[in-house]
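Components:
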Amino acid sequence: MAENALLTAPVSKLKQLLGDRTVSSEELTKAYLAQIAAENASLNAVVTVCAEEALASAREADAQIARGTTRSLTGIPLLHKDIFCTEGVRTTCGSRMLESFVPAYDATVVTKMKAEGAVMLGKCNMDEFAMGSSNETSFFGPVKNPWDLSCVPGGSSGGSAAALASGMAPLVTGTDTGGSIRQPASLCGVTGLKPTYGRVSRLGIIAFASSLDQAGPMARTAEDCALALTAMSGIDPGDSTSADISVPDFHSALSTDVNGLRIGLPREYFNDDLDSRVRENVMAALAELERAGAILHDIDLPHSHYAIATYYVIAPAEASANLARYDGVRFGYRCDAPADLEDLYQRSRSEGFGEEVQRRILVGTYALSAGFYDAYFNKAQQVRRVITEDFQRAFEQVDVIAGPAAPGVAFPFGSKQQDPIAMYMEDIYTLAVNLAGLPGLSTPAGLIDGMPVGLQLIGKPFDEQTILNAAFRLQNDTDWHLACPDLASLSS
Amino acid sequence: MSWEIVMGLEVHLQLATQSKIFSGSSTQFGASPNVQADAVDLGMPGMLPVLNEEAVRHAVTFGLGIGARIGQRSVFDRKNYFYPDLPKGYQVSQFFAPIVCEGIFEVPLENGSLYPIRITRAHLEEDAGKSVHDEFAHETGIDLNRAGTPLLEIVTEPDFRSAEQAVAYLKALHSLVTYLGISDGNMAEGSMRCDINISLRKQGSDELGTRTEIKNVNSFRFVERAIHSEYERQAEILERGGAITQETRLYDADKDTTRSMRSKEVANDYRYFPEPDLLPIVIDEAYIDAVRQSLPELPTAKRERFLAEYGVSEYDASLLVPNHDMADYFESVARASGAAKLAANWILGDLSAALNRHELSITESPISAELLSGLVSRVEDGTLSSKLAKQVFDALWQGEGDADQIIAARGLKQVSDSSALEAMVTEVIANNPDQVAQYIAADEAKRKKLSGFFVGQIMKASQGQANPQMINQLLLEKLESQS
Amino acid sequence: MSVTPQDVEKVALLARLAISESDLPEVTERFSRVLNLVDELNTIDTESVTPMSNPHDMEQRLRPDIVTRDDNRKALMASAPAQEQGYFLVPKVID
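Structure:
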């Protein structure tokens, strides 16, 4: 099989190839490691490569395959976003604060995927502490979009999306707090899924906003995401917020039957603010589903426009507390020669955190402070419920809610740096989904001037199956998800 | 000017659990630094809390023990501040909705009355670690073994009007929590820590003055002294027309004064908000009933019962009841011997003295309740005189067997046979004619003195085994008949 | 809602972040922009709406009171910036 074809093959295909011994896990692993070595200098998608460990795991996987004792991901190489703690392997969270941090434990997601036989190639670059929508805030430098090196890949899981799109791995993990899987998936032309809050354990994932964070897979197909989702999911007694709900075999339950599927189109998403070309692509994708038997409905999510304000109170507030542990005392960055305790705190934190992280900590601290708690934090929690109830009402009439995953295609570096709000607006279609704890995915919906755009599908709580099925059907009927950046031109 | 002192107490009680409130680390005291601090306790990136069921149970047990309303839907909140012994930069506590709501705790005062203290609330929270300042020249060492130990913070209304009441409350609280088995409530070891909120106001006034908080006082005695010294300090300021600064202070035992806590000067805005990593604790009626069924007899009830059932004095009860091991010990002896008052005397007298001398607790007593009841029975039935009983007590302490064995081995049986005693009296009278003559010639007062001589002789001759009451009686008769 | 540089400094102290004199104006300006964004919340009536901390109505699970962790001090303190005799070290704190 041609080199490039291997690098862009979906997991389902690779499993087949492994199964009939056309290729070994070791060969696959070497191919991806080579691609990382070749392209990472220009893309900067990967911060840590674990070549030795990967090859050792790959050989072990090959032994399993030979014995016939395989699991769902045996021998499949993957990359983890550098927000998942990996035992013995540096985990930076895109920050100077954790530049040399080596965890003594694995995140539950990492343990689970290892148990399913996946081979970890390394850790992906990301926006610092998951705060960003362009992967420009990373201490380790920005990540480039493989579709256009002058453009961002999206964020915060920008490194994961770029690595996947450029053939560095067939499967990557990301996390999504306000859109950080779906938006980069949209900008990089891949499929990305944020599960229902509580579906996947947060234990060992460096926390940004505890009530919003969720881990999820990104891959070339909805089918691959379904496979990975089962591997990642399940109640974790170590995470009090993980749901006590059984994990379906999302993959074997995949169906292309969308006959009668009611898809809601919120008027608030499809208004005059929506770029006409994004609208065109999104509608074309929905037309495909309609052709396949789905029924489109206009619905209302009347409080949509409050989502961004709500999110930018709650997320920074939770983050301000979650990031208080980074104080230079027990781990992480410590400033040089602290004069006293206050100096230790102030300089370690001011030197260890980047600008965006510091800004959000300030906003969050302010929103919780005496005199402002009621007007900001408590108020935002109330509006959160109102927004969630909008979705609940809508889901009485429809099975799935659809819209754009991002307001536009990938934008040039630096173009949204002047005004923090401009960057926050990137997540305008994704934020509410985290507030309501719903599952959401982004699936490719063609190109605009050669740059990818994604269709977002939002499901009912714990109904990842329905949105996966819809994406599966769409990918069955179209070839948008097969589009790839020109890998040959990457390093030129 | 006479000032009224108004105080509220906040007690932090370490709950007796095997593991910490949010992690599986051990809570055992005395380990090397940081060996009982796991990734969750250290606040490592990605770590999350999981709630210990026993901590919840202990909290509900306490609430029911003081007849308080249980918060059936309580929530954890983050209390945010920076300090090196606080690994996450926030303490997980309960602010908005505590697990135990309002209740009344009746405190037995020294005069025997009960003083009702209103408990505002009691809530669960995690303990911080320890800072060690003397170990290193230019640094402070941080040991996080204690971080994450479950605490119950018990808050009272400002109902205290004297140091005596405050100390009585703490003693009664200690007693209650040990009865309930939820904590060893040991102030010296830090499992019960007391913060005192104290303000003064003019006698007769309704308004509250500015208060100061004295933190972490760790003995009953220091509580009393801290209150007195802070009263003096505040009164002096108010007398000269000054104002009290609202601040946190520490009691310095060496100087017997309170001083301002420098490190807490930075104004703290704790920015409480609901802990998103934990969910509300929901407690249903069935759970509450089950805990209620399992409550042991509480100190106040036991005290009432001891007075009624065993006829002990209020004073004795006040000494026997607070330590439930002591109370159980007493009850065993009282029941087995059938002589409650005597049992109380022996326990509060000789036994307590011996235990104190050897620095043993009642549970470590070499004389078990069974053994002591043997002794008490023999005193009660007249077999042993009190004097000889002390000998037997010492022998019991040395482990020479039970009372009967010792009495037999040493031939200590008190002689109460009247004919034998009569013979002794007759003999001593016959052997001491001079003293008899003196007795006859003497007046009332002198006679009393002289009879002591005869008793002494008889005791010597009988190796202490003669029943002294009977000897006295017989002597009186015989000597009377001589005159 | 506009904030002054002094407000920002107060918040920065609570968060233990040091903002230099030269950075303060820009930090304040950008911070204000975010606050303007979130002030949108004032325009919605949420009387009697219960605040939402978590998207699902879950209750806290309880863990049995068993000691589960071994002494992992060495591994966990491997990342410590300063340690001695098993203690984490910070500049001397005066209480």
